[in-house]
Structure formats: C-alpha cells, structure tokens
Design goal:
550 residues, alpha/beta, globular, disordered N terminus
C-alpha cells in the first residue's frame, strides 16, 4: 500500500457518504417546494427556471476541484489534496444550504407517507446515478478518483430536482391505487351515513362563507365542514374517513377548482344537494387563462346540484353578468343574492363598524331584515348573504339565523382582527384577492387609534395573469389614501403597486422594501407603536420569495 493510498481512499469514502447526505438533504429541500406546488411537475419546473432554483454553489466547488485536477498532469500531486478538500467542502456547504432552506421555511415540509416515499426513492435514484457516472468516468475514460467523483457530484447536484420528479412519476401508479381505495371508502361512508351535502366554491370568499354557514347550521343541527382551506379530492376524502359521524346532519364541502373537471370530480365524490357559488374572478387566472373557463369550471357545481334536484345560490354582484345570464335562461335553478332589485335576497346597505359588519337586506319571503356579525371587511356582506340564503332555504327561520350570526367566529388569517395590547392587527395573510385587499385597506381607517399609524405589510397577490399589473396599480392608488407606512415584500413582483403608491401618497407616508416577509415582521417588532393598526395582506409561500440560494 502506498503512503498516498490511505488518505485519498478515505477522501473517496467520505465524499461518497457526504454525497448520500447531500442527496437526502437537497432532495428534502426540493421536496418542500415541490409539495408547495402540489406535486405538479410542470409548475415545479417553472419555479426552477423563474426563481433560479437549480444548484450553483456545490457545482462551483466541484468544478474548482476539477480545475485542480489539471495540475496533476503537470506533476503537482499536492493539488489532489486541495481538490478533495474543495469537493468535500462543496458538499458540506450544499448540505448547509439545504438545511437552511428547510429551517427558514414559512410553510414547512410536511412529511406525509407520500412525501417519505418520494424522498426515499429520490435518494435511491441519486445513489444509482452518481454511482453509474463515477464508474463510467473512472473506468471508461479512464480518469482519477477525484475527476470521477467531481463529475458525479456535479451531475447529482444538477439532476436532483429532476430525480425528485422522476421519483414522483415512478410512484404514481402506487399512489393512484392508494387514492382509489381511500376514495371508495369515503364514497361508501357518505352513502351509508347520507348527510345533507352542501357544496361551496368560488374564486374567493368560499372559506369565509363556509365558516359562516357552518356556524349558523350548527346552531340548529350537528354540522361538519371541511376545515380551513381543505378543498381537494384527497383532503375531502380524509375528512370523510376520519371526522364524519352518523350524527352529522349537514356536511359542508369547500370545493377547489384546479382545472376544468375538478369540481365535477368532487361532486361525484360528495354529491351536493345545495350549492353556493361565491364569486367568479381572476384568482387562479394562470390556471384557466380565460374568465369563461373559470366560470364553466365553477358552475360544474350548479350542474351537479341541478342533477340532484337542488338549488344553487349565487352572488350575482361578483359574477360576470353576461355569463350568468346565459345560465339563468337555461332553466338551472338559482337563488340570487346581491344588490340588484331582481335578486331573491337583496342587499340594501352594508356598513363596517369597529364591532363588525352591519347589513340591511330584503328577501322575497322574509321582508326587511337587519343583520350584524362580528366580522371585518365589507366584502363579508355578500358572504353573510349567501350563508343566510343557504340556511333559510333549508328551513331555518330568519330570527334563528340572525341570532347565530351575532356570534359568528372570525376565519383564521382572513381579515381576522386581533388586538395585542394597544396595537391592532388585521390578519389577512391567507391568499389575498382584490376584493379582500381593498376591504383590508379601508378597514385601516376604521380601526386606527387617534394618534396611531396605518401600516401595511404585503407581497402583493398571485395568479392574476394579465390582470396582475392592472389590479396592483388600482390597489396601490387605494393604499395611498389609507396607508401611512407600506412595507412591500419582494417589490420587484409588484412594480405597478409600488409606482402607484409612491406617485399618490401624501408627503408623510413612506414605502419600505424587503426581500423576505420575516424581514418586514422584524421591522414591525422594532418600530410598532401604541395605537398602530397593522394590516398583513397576504403571506406568500417560499416559492414566491427570493431564490433558495442553492
């Protein structure tokens, strides 16, 4: 055995072990982003390109080691030690960067059984790929251990996100079998227990409307609603399998549309007898491309309800009139709520007070009614009306509905008002839309103390497609009238908002720029004063903030 054999063999073994750790940690970090994209390979590839998600640092260190390899051909044997050191340091740095990305995540990776399977197969694929590359270069070229190792590491670092997608694709047949079994169990349970199913969908407002309706119906009979923003096939399936009980008379199901046919699939899983469509707007425009496609996708709920002989409640004020009119003329049964005189339930007035929303409505069979709910944002008036119409159509007296509304709970992170000492927080961090954003800005004036400041923290909105600049420009102008200090996260995403705000704000107002939500929150911790009211308008997942720094 030569004197050089042992240390360089040890370096090779250490590199191999660190390569496995790197594959696991980098795969886990990529899996977090992949999971946030709902395991959609197309959207994940777009994120990789748009946000510079591919590896750079580890590959640069490996290539530096490669540069040192050239010195070996000139007899500088000591350069091999530096090459191994650069390669090992690059792997350690890559592991550190991956762990940092995971530890700083706003939406941490959830290690579900599916996520575990994907990660395990990713590590296996990584080991096989690196081993094949190493063997091919080492014995096929032939090349030194260092040269073969560094090429294997560069390929591994660059291929890691694609190996993750490959692992997901390879597991898809198995996942489909698991999914089919769970779906059938949920269908059988729904047929056996036969609750009255109410489906709710819309571009926005569906979660708040669901929460309000669940509160109203719970005052009359046992009611189960899908929790939070659960609105997918497997999410609903899990709720049915784990939470639905024989005593539940009503089951309220939030239904999300991720493309044409999504709602129809959910309706086959949980056939609704009553439907609620809260709005048709530009949210998720990038998935649908045309407002007509959004309309058709959401109105799959109305089609399913009609097949069961039921009625769908629609918020006429938030649905394009020319599209709705076509459906009204085809005989589909609807209950319309809104401000027009021809609505079944008409909004006469709505006012926001420090204690909640007060609205006056007129119904065909209930006369003039005044309702109050301890909720915030004038857009809640339409959510309250839709929930009221649904409960009334199920036979609840308006007095019982009014009593239930007086104690309606706020929805988490949806214009949720929280008072912390002498500071008021308006938490609208979940999935901002133009209507809710505008309501939050107007709410700042109502809740501000006499000498307090109106502060906005926002990264803007997403998935507005061609309306992105226009909607942000409108909201920038509105913010200039209602905001003293605007903390804008990733301002390069919303230049029209920044431009409009700075052009129209009063001289005392200021705009501050931040790369991450955490940085803006740290500013608040350091500078918030008694009497301030702070609006958190959206909190985007890690996908939309600065690149991961791999």
């Amino acid at each position: 055995m030569t004197t050089a054999f042992f240390p360089y063999s040890a370096a090779l073994i250490l590199t191999a072990l660190l390569g496995l750790v790197f594959a696991h940690q980098r795969g886990k970090a990529y899996l977090m982003y992949f999971q946030q994209e709902e395991y959609d390979a197309k959207r994940f590839r777009h994120w990789l390109s748009a946000h510079h998600g591919r590896d750079r640092a580890t590959s640069v260190f490996a290539l530096a080691a490669g540069g040192l390899c050239f010195g070996l051909s000139y007899g500088f044997a000591w350069l091999e030690a530096l090459g191994w050191a650069a390669l090992i340091f690059g792997l350690l740095d890559g592991i550190r960067r991956s762990r940092r990305s995971l530890s700083q995540a706003k939406k941490p990776l959830v290690m579900t059984d599916r996520a575990k399977r994907i990660l395990q197969l990713h590590v296996l694929f990584s080991a096989l790929l690196a081993g094949l590359i190493y063997a091919g270069v080492r014995f096929g070229a032939p090349a030194s251990n260092l040269a073969a190792s560094l090429i294997a590491i560069v390929v591994l670092a660059q291929a890691s996100p694609y190996l993750l997608m490959l692992a997901n694709a390879a597991l898809q047949p198995f996942e489909n079998r698991v999914k089919a079994r769970f779906l059938e169990e949920a269908r059988q349970k729904l047929r056996r227990l036969d609750p009255y199913i109410i489906g709710i969908t819309g571009s926005y407002g569906k979660t708040s409307t669901k929460s309000i309706l669940a509160h109203i119906l719970s005052s009359a009979a046992p009611t189960l609603a899908t929790p939070g923003s659960v609105n997918t096939e497997m999410g609903i399936t899990r709720v049915v399998r784990e939470q639905l009980e024989p005593e539940h008379r009503y089951f309220i199901v939030e239904m999300g549309a991720y493309g044409p046919g999504s709602i129809a699939r959910l309706c086959r899983l949980a056939p609704p007898k009553l439907g609620v469509i809260t709005a048709i707007g530009w949210a998720h425009y990038e998935r649908f491309k045309q407002i007509e496609t959004v309309f058709d996708a959401k109105f799959e709920l109305a089609d399913a309800v009609a097949q069961s002989g039921g009625t769908t409640i629609v918020n006429q004020d938030a649905i394009p009139g020319h599209l709705l009119q076509k459906r009204l003329s085809d005989g589909t049964p609807f209950i319309r709520v809104g401000s027009d005189k021809d609505c079944t339930l008409r909004l006469v007035s709505a006012d926001q007070t420090p204690d909640g929303v007060r609205l006056e409505i007129v119904g065909d069979d209930m006369g003039e009614v005044v309702l109050h709910a301890p909720l915030y944002g004038l857009h809640q008036a339409h959510n309250i009306m839709a929930a009221t119409a649904a409960a009334h159509s199920l036979g609840m007296p308006i007095d019982a509905i009014r009593a239930a509304l007086s104690s309606a709970p706020q929805s988490r992170h949806r214009l949720e008002v929280v008072r912390s000492g002498d500071i008021t927080i308006i938490d609208d961090a979940y999935n901002s839309n133009p209507s809710g954003f505008a309501s939050g800005l107007e709410l700042l004036d109502i809740l501000k103390a006499k000498d307090g400041r109106r502060i906005l923290i926002t990264p803007g909105m997403v998935e507005l497609g061609e309306k992105h600049e226009e909607e942000h420009h409108k909201l920038g102008e509105l913010a200039a009238r209602h905001v003293d200090i605007a903390l804008v996260v990733t301002p390069e995403r919303i230049p029209s908002f920044v431009t409009a705000y700075e052009a129209q704000k009063p001289s005392h107002a200021q705009l501050l720029r931040f790369d991450r939500q955490e940085d803006a929150q740290n500013w608040i911790k350091a500078h918030a004063q008694n009497g301030d009211v702070i609006l958190y308008e959206n909190n985007l997942p890690d996908l939309y903030e600065k690149p991961p720094g791999f």
